[in-house]
Amino acid sequence: MARHFRNKQQKNELNNGGIKMKQALIICAAGMSSSLMAKKTTEYFNSKGNDIKVDAVSTSEGTQKIEDGEFDLFLISPQTKMYYDKLKKTGDRVGKPVINIPPQAYVPIPMGIEKLANVILEELPSE
Question: What pLDDT digit, counting tens, does each position of 23-35 carry?
Fold first, then answer.
């Protein structure tokens, strides 16, 4: 029998034994460098025992993703900071945090990944 879910968040909660996995989304120019950062940061969280998933999309998808509200935190990459005000307004309207990623936390080396992970941990809303 197939299960029907109201949204992806409900499905994620069921898949995690009722515990909601925290999710952060990086919004980037084309989504390519951010995909690498998201993958490596998710791996970092997993290695530390944190159930946090990081994903990435391009700026063309960013506003819609914020409006959908499936993520707990939205991160704006350094190269797309010119879109921050617009994306932040959307986040404020739907009650979701939108922050800029500091450039030193956007480097795909261990130190940069750790800095990005720390930014996410500091900014993720607690429930």
Answer: 999 999 986 789 9
